[in-house]
Amino acid sequence: MSDLCENLCVQKKRAKLIKEGRCFICCNTGCYVKKCKKEVCSYCKGRHARAICFKLEKSKQNSHLDLEEKNVDVKTTSSNSVFHNRGGVLLQCVEAEIIGRSSSDKIFCLFDNRSEKSFIKKNVSRSKVEVRLRNILSGEETVIEALEIEEISKATLSLPNPDAWAEMESKGFRLTFSCNESSENCEISLLIGSDFYWSLTHRIKRLDSSLVAVETRLGWSLQGRCDERSDCTSVHLVHSEEESISTELRRFWEIESLGILDKGSVTLDNGDEEILSEFDKSVNFVDGRYRVNLPWKPGMREALQINKTVARKRFEGLVRRFKCDHELFCEYKDVIDDYVREGIVERTSCDSLLDSQGFYLPHHAVIRSDKTTSHIRIVFDGSAHEDGQSSLNQSLYTGPNLHPNILELLLCFRKSPVAFTADVKSAFLQIELDFRDRDFTRFFWTDNLNKEPYVLNFTRVLFGLRPSPYLLAATLKHHFKNDAGMLLRKWRSNSKQLNLLWQQEGVKTESSETSAIDLRPPTKVLGLAWDPENDLIYFDPKDLLKFMSRRGESKRFILSVVGRIFDPIGILGPFVIKLKCLLQELWTLGVERDSELPPKLRHKWQQWSSEAEGLTEIKIPRFYLGSIDQEISKCEIHCFSDASKSAYGTILYLRFVTCNNEIESSFICSKGRVAPLKSLTLPRLELTAALLSARLAKQVSSCLKFDANIYYWTDYLISYYWIRGDSSAFKPYIKNRVQEIQLLSDPMQWGHCPGKDNPADLLSRGTSAVKLAQNELWWHGPPWLKLTPDHWPSRHRDIFRFRALLGRIRTSF
Predict the structure, then answer these.
(1) For residue 718, is pLDDT > 80?
(2) Helix/strand/coil percentages in the chain, nearest 5
(3) 730 close to 722: Cβ distance less than 8 angstroms
(4) Mind giving me the DSSP string for 469-530?
(5) Which of 269, 629, 635, 753 is 20 to 30 A distant from 476 in Cα terms?
(6) CA distance 715 to 752
(7) Predicted TM-score (pTM) above 0.70
(8) Which Gene3D superfamilies does UniProt cross-reference here (predicted)?
(9) For residue 180, with 0-12 CB atoms within 10 Å meaning exposed, 13-18 middle and 19 or more buried, which class applies?
(10) Measured distance CA(688)–CA(678) in Å, rounded
(11) In what order do the strands lie in the sheet with 708-714?
(12) How far apart are the first and last CA of the chain?
């Protein structure tokens, strides 16, 4: 339907279609609903077009009433390119006054009827969701609601030149901005989306074939292509909300797969080997520091075009922000001054600036309130580029992933009674860049906001380039034992003697940087929180609970919640598995990301959300042996597996016997997975859980390097007999998994235990966070683990007594 009909209600749209004899689905004449082959409404699946859906209209009418309740966290990434041209496209914008409690300020508003919601920059709204605006010319006031967002666009709006402005005025279209207004000052502070677009829009007047004047309650605006008389700055902006959610989910599933994927399948390809070989040839150790080259793709160093215009525009936007927030400028300047003082950046020479080779990096601040040291991090954008040209990041190889396995590191972190941590100060910035690459790291800066900026460039590897993590990991791998010229700081330990020694030696510890213990954030160890005083590790739910307080109830919101859960060793397994199952149901039902949840799933989500408060109670000892300081005479690893129709999983315990014959057991790790969408019988799911157990046990035993026997337990007799039987006698699905289990373990290591004693049952069925925190079976295993083996369930059942059963299960499953 025509955009001009968008301001009509659904009832009037339908009446118009009936009057003109048009089809309710395709809106064409000569077609009938019964015979129309076009797709039906994507919102309610009714036989009509989406534009005339009563349910959708009702949903939109209610959407702004509970805006705060349905607020979602939208992390955005944007890339833009700017170029100057005669003739261009004007976007529909007005200048209006935003009215605060005690003052008002002028801002630029962009009308965008393709955006579902309205957005306002945080520094403009100051946490306000209700926005009161005033027409600069008439004084008419209006109120809308908008979601807060860090950045709408780093680019600026295009304005007509004074001649075009005067022509509009002569035709009676009074524009809200001055004819002398510079495009450089037109930063977008408010985006008015479809939720308020048509309620603020009135008449539309066509000026020529490609330009219209649109009357709004905030004043007249222009939209369309302007002719050669208008001197425009054209802005091409790509704005993505999906990337952050996708990145978080990818990280979540990668963490979930640690320890249960075949490590042998993760190898370096020929390209990665070549990159590593080139690194080894070029890395140098000069004056106490490593010096490296950027990993350029073939021919890209010479082909990379300078992007000075984009970087300058972005910096001018940053300066405008500094003028509004002087405190931010002072903190930002302190960081840059430190960079200069430490030789991390240098003033770019005049000769280098005359060279056509080079690249400029836009930059912005990221505020980190949870950090005990620097609260502000400057992030440089290696992806900025001119229109139609490559960026620096596109010209560089990312490099292979050389980071160690997080699960293995955490397992080893729990092995010893004494643990300590330290942080490499500004790790990336400790590695020097080769002289030939420094001109590709230029950026604009100024010490005085009223003066022209000058150009600096990096001498070190910086945060924001695609290969930076690889270069850091490769450098550490190259000469880890040598003095790499890196300063270690923020030392912390659970040992009182070690802390006292550091204090006597004047070593700067993390505790010395924050005097008040209550104000000190938890120490982070590979993403988990560590309390050295009590030697406990746990998942810190503070940020998750803060995000969930927004009470979103859409698939998008749930995806964002999933991406915020970091639990590599499976402490929260039985609670998180409920969320995984809910996510699978959402996908199975085809629920769209921003649609309302079906009632049944909404109830499940609300229940899970209400139980999340209990996560604050879940903490486990870091050291496997806890407070026991006696010599250990024997260690064993016990693995339990279980499955249900919805999920399956495995959990591992360390059982140890002291020289005084005291027996204890402690949680090592767990892994839980949802059952495949393709329906499997319960015996096959139990066998899959057993395979998961064997894979995880292999990695744990190779990592811990304890001289320990391994025992496997299942409460399902059929899978138990499969594992103890001849794999060649079974169907391919069973045969392949039995063969792998028998390759990873000795069938004689497998035993059968009662279902009530199987802690993995919690992984297959789920439980609340509060119940999980108090569940002794989950944290220590069945009671008989603390008894001698003669009290264990019988591990060796007589297979010959079950030949009839074996004959049936060979053909039935």
Answers:
(1) yes
(2) 40, 25, 35
(3) yes
(4) HHHHHHHHHHSTTS--S--EEEEEES-HHHHHHHHHHT--BHHHH---GGGPPPEEETTEEE
(5) 269
(6) 5
(7) no
(8) 3.30.70.270, HIV Type 1 Reverse Transcriptase, subunit A, domain 1
(9) exposed
(10) 14
(11) 663-674, 647-658, 632-643, 708-714, 750-752
(12) 55
At 180, which amino acid appears?
Answer: N
- Joined together, the tokens standing for residue 351 give 């000769």
Which of 23-27, 102-106, 626-630 has the largest mean confidence?
23-27
Strand partners, 64: none
- CA gap 571, 613 in Å, rounded: 15
Q: How deeply is 477 buried, as exposed, middle or buried, from its count of CB atoms within 10 A (0-12, 13-18, 19+)?
A: middle
Query: What's the pLDDT score for residue 457?
Result: 94
Rounded CA gap, 550 and 579, in Å? 18
Among left, alpha and beta (phi > 0; psi -120 to 50; other), residue 122 is: alpha
pLDDT in tens, 286-303: 887 888 999 998 888 888
Q: Containing H/E element for 652?
A: strand 647-658
Tens of pLDDT, residue by residue over 155-189, are 556 666 666 666 677 777 777 775 555 555 567 88
Contact assessment for residue 652 and residue 637, using Cβ atoms and an 8 Å cutoff: yes
pLDDT class of 126 with cuts at 50, 70, 90: very low
What's the alpha-carbon Rg for the chain, to the nearest Å? 32
Please tell me the distance from the alpha carbon of residue 533 to that of residue 523, in angstroms, as a whole number.
11
In the DSSP assignment, the letter for residue 746 is: -
State pLDDT tens for residues 641-652: 999 999 999 999
The answer to whether the beta carbons of residues 442 and 358 sit under 8 Å apart is yes
Query: Is pLDDT above 80 for 425?
Result: no
Classify residue 670 as exposed, middle or buried by CB count within 10 Å of its CB (0-12, 13-18, 19+). Answer: buried
Residues near 215 by Cβ (< 8 Å), separated by ≥ 6? 201, 202, 203, 204, 205
Which of 124-133, 384-393, 434-443, 730-739 has the weakest average pLDDT?
124-133
The 3-state DSSP class for residue 258 equals: coil
